[in-house]
From TrEMBL:
Belongs to the membrane fusion protein (MFP) (TC 8.A.1) family. It comes from Caballeronia cordobensis. It is found in: Cell envelope. Residues 303-364 form the Multidrug resistance protein MdtA-like C-terminal permuted SH3 domain. Keywords: Signal. One of its GO terms (biological process) is response to antibiotic. This is HlyD family secretion protein. PROSITE patterns: PROKAR_LIPOPROTEIN. Residues 63-204 form the Multidrug resistance protein MdtA-like barrel-sandwich hybrid domain. Residues 208-298 form the Multidrug resistance protein MdtA-like beta-barrel domain. InterPro entries: MdtA-like_b-barrel, MdtA-like_BSH, MdtA-like_C, MdtA-like_HH, RND_pump_MFP. Residues 101-171 form the Multidrug resistance protein MdtA-like alpha-helical hairpin domain. Residues 390-412 have a biased composition (Low complexity). The lineage of its organism: Bacteria, Pseudomonadati, Pseudomonadota, Betaproteobacteria, Burkholderiales.
Length: 412
């Protein structure tokens, strides 16, 4: 069969139609879609500034009961671990040698008193006789000197009595303070010595309780600089609140008070000592426990806070935020944060009040894109309490672990 020939005129018309259709598609405008994102407009807020420090508890009073005389312990008069009162007798040391010393001192005192009477009478007689030249002036002077020596002997004997009474009193070993007594270090029959200062027991007052903390000198320097620059305001160390976190992670129910911060830096550790005091009526705190304390050091009245949904982190851990500018274009900002406050990050640098940060729809935009910004609908955040205050940079890793997950869920 012979193939049919297509007329050349038909081929030309078809080609012209296809070219016209191609040119029409090239010049037709393309439909563009502007993504919509939820933003929050930043404002300043008053944020408490806290420091989390580590330390150990110590007794409010720690009295070591030691022997003050030599002797044999006759008996112990307390139960180990019980609460004893100040002045309560704990041990009885054999008093027999000290009773004998006291009696000897009293006899010496009586002898000195008798000698004083004799020498005083002789001095009075010689005083009359020397006036009439019945005795020599030398004899009178000797009588006066003997009277003075007799008076000194009386005073010495009296002091010996007082010393013997004090030593006899030391045979009653008493508690110097009210508190809880620990393990007895001696038993009845043991020989104790004053020269060796034999430790017999320890009495500790556990209510209230001290908490001794350590703070790096660098953190202390930053705090003082922020106060001087007016970035932080504080009402004084005696009004600072301290929250205690126990070894099991629970928060101690009693609020503590900051007592003082040492003025000397330990050259071996580069830290300063900070002491707080806590009530301990239930004896939850025991001396030597490892604890963490959160100290409210001041308030930053102009802090920039950003919801955690608007902050992401890159692979290096740098905090990032997407900002919508006045031209409705997206810009990426690196941030420097100092911790969390409630459900927000506290930003030290990278953002300013009045800027719009994207918290919804972050996964739909890229830097440089033009977007439509609408107010975000975030769930109501709980009111930050004493346990949700802004932490210092030292606490940032613990806070960042939770915030990074929230930011990643927002589309980092």
């Amino acid at each position: 069969m012979r193939p049919k020939r297509i007329p050349f005129r038909l081929i030309g018309v078809t080609t012209a139609a296809l070219l016209a259709a191609g040119c029409g598609e090239k010049h037709a405008p393309m439909a563009q879609h502007t993504p919509e994102v939820g933003v929050v407009t930043l404002d300043t807020a008053a944020v408490p500034v806290t420091a989390e420090l580590t330390g150990r508890t110590s007794a409010f009073l720690d009295a070591q009961v030691r022997a003050r005389v030599d002797g044999i312990v006759l008996r112990r008069e307390f139960t180990e671990g019980s609460v004893v009162k100040a002045g309560q007798r704990l041990y009885k040391i054999d008093p027999a040698p000290f009773i004998a010393q006291l009696n000897n001192a009293k006899a010496s005192y009586a002898k000195a008193q008798a000698n004083l009477v004799s020498t005083n009478a002789q001095a009075e007689r010689y005083k009359v006789l020397v006036a009439s030249s019945a005795v020599s002036k030398q004899d009178y002077d000797n009588a006066v000197a003997a009277l003075g020596q007799a008076q000194a002997d009386v005073a010495s004997a009296k002091a010996a009595i007082e010393t013997a009474q004090i030593n006899l009193g030391y045979t009653d070993v008493k508690s110097p303070v009210t508190g809880q007594v620990g393990i007895s270090q001696v038993t009845p029959g043991a020989y104790v010595q004053a020269a060796q200062a034999t430790l017999m027991a320890t009495v500790q007052q556990l209510d209230p309780m001290y908490v001794d903390l350590t703070q790096s000198s660098l953190d202390g320097l930053k705090l003082r600089r922020q106060i001087q620059e007016g970035r932080l305001s504080t009402s004084g160390p005696h009004a600072a609140k301290v929250t205690l976190i126990l070894e099991d992670g629970r928060v101690y129910p009693e609020q503590g008070k900051l007592q003082f911060s040492d003025v000397t830096v330990d050259p071996s550790t580069g830290s300063v000592a900070v002491r707080a005091v806590f009530l301990n009526a239930d004896r939850v705190l025991l001396p030597g426990m490892f604890v963490r304390a959160r100290i409210e050091e001041g308030v930053n009245p102009k802090a920039i806070v950003v919801p955690v949904q608007g902050v992401t982190h890159d692979q290096k851990g740098t905090a990032l935020a997407m900002v919508v500018g006045k031209d409705n274009k997206v810009a990426l900002r690196p941030l420097v944060t100092s911790g969390t406050y409630g459900q927000s990050w506290v930003v030290d640098s990278g953002l300013n009040a009045g800027e719009r940060v994207i918290v919804e729809g972050i996964d739909k935009v890229r830097p440089g894109m033009e977007v439509k910004a609408v107010p975000a609908h975030l769930p109501a955040a709980p009111n930050p309490g004493a346990d949700q205050t802004a932490a210092k940079p030292a606490d940032k890793p613990a806070a960042a672990s939770g915030a990074s997950g929230a930011a990643g869920a927002a589309g980092a």
